[in-house]
């Protein structure tokens, strides 16, 4: 892939809605250490994701060979582990993740038309069982974690023996194997991308925008919309992972990723700009949101029916909103401007 061409056209893909101002407070030569830290941390995140998805494919195979309540529980736990690994690096929206719509292959969301459910059901009713190649050539709605979630947690498939049926198991194996292959390729391509990323100044802005866009998505789409704080009634079906009731678990994992992967490079930039206090304030707010999410229940939908749990949900929303406001202060403190993001919207 011609990464130099990509870096010249960042705006086209919405990767750098944060733009370098005429006189940024952090000189170009001082931005490289932040990109070095980000490249290494993202690479470690992709490596963990590849490892977890390979384990998921192995557990799917084990379940289909010897289905039992124990092997199913192991499979479900492995699915969540791998899904959380994805959430930790999900904020990265540039570079190899853009190739072949990989982000959508890994997680098709939002899914307002229930395309995931329809695709899974179509394959379960098909005359022939799916191959890995057939899944790879099909829609992104059938290729990632949400499709596996449907197989693992849909009410009909939760009946004893339903998932162990040949067609269901073949589909489970095809999806998990394709997912493992996708993440392994992503890990490899990120390392190949490394020199270009570290040497290209515009990726400082791209990485900042990716992290801050994730906070905006957390506030407006992953929290406000399903809990009814976006001008419409609460609707748990708008949440991620509503079938498995793991929505909050995934949000917590995204916050962990921002804390562990995104924050170190951001702190480097702020410290170099003489903004240590702002760096500490942002880190404290991120830690508050992370702890709030970790102490809550796993699912968003049950919290809508429980006043105490809903109050916790509102506190999490407020914490994420505070991070969003701080992100705008960070942009100003670094001498940057925040422009239109072409990836906004559904």
From TrEMBL:
Residues 1-27 form the signal peptide. Its main location: other. GO terms for cellular component: cell envelope. The keyword Aminoacyl-tRNA synthetase does not apply. The keyword Kinase does not apply. Keywords: Signal. It is found in: Cell envelope. Transmembrane segments: none annotated. InterPro entries: Imelysin-like, Imelysin-like_IPPA, Imelysin_sf. Residues 44-322 form the Imelysin-like domain. This is Imelysin family protein.
């Amino acid at each position: 892939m011609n990464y130099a061409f990509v870096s010249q056209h960042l705006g086209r893909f919405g990767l750098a809605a944060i733009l370098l101002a005429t006189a940024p407070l952090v000189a170009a030569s001082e931005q490289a250490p932040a990109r070095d830290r980000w490249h290494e941390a993202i690479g470690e995140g992709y490596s963990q994701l590849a490892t977890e998805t390979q384990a998921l494919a192995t557990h799917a195979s084990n379940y289909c060979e010897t289905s039992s309540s124990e092997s199913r529980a192991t499979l479900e736990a492995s699915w969540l582990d791998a899904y959380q690994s994805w959430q930790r690096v999900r904020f990265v929206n540039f570079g190899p993740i853009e190739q072949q719509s990989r982000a959508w292959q890994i997680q098709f969301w939002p899914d307002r038309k229930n395309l995931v459910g329809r695709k899974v059901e179509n394959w379960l009713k098909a005359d022939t069982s799916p191959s890995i190649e057939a899944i790879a050539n099909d829609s992104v709605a059938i290729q990632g974690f949400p499709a596996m979630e449907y197989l693992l947690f849909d009410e009909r498939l939760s009946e004893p023996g339903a998932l162990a049926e040949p067609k269901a198991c073949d589909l489970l194996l095809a999806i998990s194997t394709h997912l493992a292959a996708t993440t392994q390729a992503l890990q490899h391509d990120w390392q190949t991308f490394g020199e270009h990323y570290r040497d290209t100044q515009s990726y400082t802005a791209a990485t900042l925008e990716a992290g801050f866009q994730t906070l905006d998505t957390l506030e407006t789409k992953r929290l406000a919309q399903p809990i009814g704080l976006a001008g419409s009634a609460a609707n748990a079906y708008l949440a991620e992972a509503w079938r498995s009731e793991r929505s909050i678990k995934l949000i917590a994992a995204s916050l962990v990723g921002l804390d562990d992967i995104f924050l170190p490079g951001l702190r480097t930039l702020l410290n170099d700009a003489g903004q240590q206090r702002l760096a500490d304030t942002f880190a404290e707010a991120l830690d508050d949101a992370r702890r709030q999410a970790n102490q809550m229940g796993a699912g968003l939908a049950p919290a809508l029916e429980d006043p105490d749990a809903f109050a916790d949900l509102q506190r999490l929303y407020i914490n994420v909103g505070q991070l969003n406001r701080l992100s705008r202060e960070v942009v100003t403190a670094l001498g940057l401007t925040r422009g239109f993001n072409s990836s906004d919207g559904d």
